[in-house]
Structure formats: structure tokens, C-alpha cells
Design goal:
A two-stranded antiparallel sheet has the order 1-2. Helices cover about 65% and strands about 0% of the residues.
């Protein structure tokens, strides 16, 4: 894979190493855990990647004036949920992918049943982590935020409608009002499939930093715009990227007839929409009590990334 842009890589280096160490500790062997299940969980959780969502949790905590160490349990939990979603998305019954981050997907390395159970175990371990490692009021609030972001009206609902739209999406069937309102249209799908967990990452990180309601609202707005930009760029990379750089197959969205931004708006207009979403994300960071430089850098990275 191509390296991260230098400036962003520099900002990420310290927090990412802390995240990797915390993730590794979170799946240390425990009594009663079947070894093969634990191996599958570690295989997927420790496969690397951008660690965008846990980074957002840490930096949201800093952006409301607290130390990022307070948000590490939230960062670990959200990456567990993200990894579970990737394991399940790759399964033959869903996106049917053989590669993830440049190596065999969990069900290819192990088997379908083990992959399902590894995803289930990571999902439940995320909430155990929050309950065990945060003070009671923060744990309750973070569990709710993560459940909403990952649940039936969030990531899971968006994934359902993404699969349901395959082969039925008509890019010429525009809403006469000019709005994208159908559950099978890209904005509706991606606001839930991708954006909801990004918003949850920011909010749970900020909660551990004792954020005000106004700060939580600002970070949620930032997350909605960032999530939209992230998914538009993801759609563009699937349409224009190459498999070695991406670390996974490309062109599958077109082959599956999925509802994507390039399919509806074309390549150039999709890029413009991503740029506008990133600008709106940056504008949302005003009036926070702590440093927002890392979150601004995330927005630039999302727009410029190549994998």
C-alpha cells in the first residue's frame, strides 16, 4: 500500500502506536476462549489499517480539552466494532470479498462459521471494554452512542439497504425535488453505513473528555460531513483505484449495481461533492475548547487518500 501523506503520518504516529498496543492487549488470551476463535479475532483486529475511527475518538477527547488517554477504551471499542463489521461484510452472503488489507479475509483464512463468530465476539467485547474500563456514567453514555451508531438505524441498517439496492439502483431516477431521500440512494445509505459509526467514534471520545452538549453537537456535525466525504472517496477509489494500492478488489460496486456517488453523479461531480463535504467538516470544528488541528488533518487526508 502507498504510505500516508507525510504530515498526516507524523500526526498519527504516536496515537496509532498507542492504539495498536491497546488493541493487542485487548485480545490477550483468556480462560475459556477457544484458541481458534481468539486467533481469528486477533487476525482481523491486528491486521493494521488506517485506524481512523479510534484516532477520531482520541482526537475528539483532546478537542474538548482533555487528555487522549481518557478515550483509549472508547478507541479500542469502536475499532472492535469496525473490525466486526468488516469481517461480516466480507462474507460470501454479503460482499463476498477474498482480500482485506492485502491478505485473505477472515473467512478465507479460517472458515465462514469462525468468521461469523469472530465478528460476534468482537462486537460484544467492545461493550464489555466500555463497561469495564470507563466510569459508570461515561460507560452508559458511550454504550448507548456506540449501539445507536452501529445498530439497526445506523451502520447495520445502512449495510442492509446497500445490499438491498444491488441491481435495483437506477442512477437516472432522480428525485424531482433534487433531494436524495430514498433509502436506496447513496446519501441515505452512506450516512448510516459509514457516517453513523464515525459520528459515534467522535461522540464517545468526547464523552470521555467531559464534553458539553454543544461540543458533542459540533463534533457530530463534523462527523456527518467527514463520513460523507469518506464514503464518496471510497466509491471513487472503487471506480478508479487499483487493487495493489487498495489491498482489495476494485470495481465490485459497478459489477454489483450498487448505489454509489460516481454512478449517480459521475467522477468529477463526486469529487466536487467530497471537497464540499470536507470544507463543511472543517467549518464544524469552531468553538471547541481544545486543539482541533488533528481533526482538520483527518479531513484533508480523507480527501487525498489513495486506499
Amino acid at each position: 500500500m502507498s504510505p500516508l501523506p507525510v504530515a498526516f503520518a507524523d500526526i498519527c504516529a504516536g496515537p496509532r502506536s498507542e492504539i495498536e498496543a491497546a488493541l493487542a492487549r485487548s485480545v490477550d488470551p483468556r480462560p475459556g476462549v477457544p484458541p481458534r476463535l481468539a486467533d481469528a479475532m486477533r487476525y482481523s483486529l491486528m491486521a493494521g489499517g488506517k485506524r481512523l475511527r479510534p484516532l477520531l475518538a482520541l482526537w475528539a477527547c483532546e478537542a474538548v480539552g482533555s487528555r487522549r488517554e481518557a478515550a483509549m477504551p472508547a478507541a479500542v471499542a469502536v475499532e472492535m466494532v469496525h473490525t466486526y463489521s468488516l469481517i461480516h461484510d466480507d462474507l460470501p452472503a454479503m460482499d463476498d470479498d477474498d482480500l482485506r488489507r492485502g491478505r485473505p479475509t477472515c473467512h478465507k483464512e479460517f472458515d465462514d462459521a469462525t468468521a461469523v463468530l469472530a465478528g460476534d465476539a468482537l462486537l460484544t467485547l467492545a461493550f464489555e471494554t466500555l463497561a469495564d474500563r470507563l466510569r459508570a456514567d461515561h460507560a452508559a453514555a458511550c454504550c448507548r452512542e456506540l449501539a445507536v451508531g452501529a445498530g439497526w438505524a445506523g451502520m447495520v441498517g445502512g449495510q442492509h439497504d446497500d445490499l438491498d439496492a444491488e441491481g435495483r439502483f437506477d442512477p437516472t431516477d432522480d428525485d424531482p425535488t433534487g433531494n436524495i431521500a430514498s433509502p436506496t440512494d447513496p446519501e441515505s445509505i452512506h450516512a448510516r453505513k459509514t457516517g453513523a459509526l464515525i459520528v459515534a467514534s467522535l461522540r464517545i471520545g468526547a464523552i470521555t473528555g467531559n464534553a458539553s452538549q454543544a461540543e458533542l453537537a459540533r463534533l457530530a456535525e463534523y462527523g456527518r460531513h467527514l463520513g460523507l466525504a469518506f464514503q464518496i472517496v471510497d466509491d471513487l477509489l472503487d471506480a478508479t483505484g487499483d487493487a495493489p494500492t487498495m489491498g482489495k478488489a476494485v470495481g465490485k460496486d459497478v459489477d454489483s449495481g450498487k448505489a454509489t456517488y460516481p454512478a449517480r453523479f459521475g467522477i468529477d461531480e463526486s469529487r466536487r461533492l467530497a471537497e464540499r463535504a470536507v470544507a463543511a467538516a472543517r467549518d464544524s470544528l469552531s468553538e471547541l475548547s481544545g486543539p482541533t488541528g488533528p481533526l482538520e488533518s483527518v479531513a484533508s487526508f480523507v480527501l487525498d487518500r489513495d486506499h
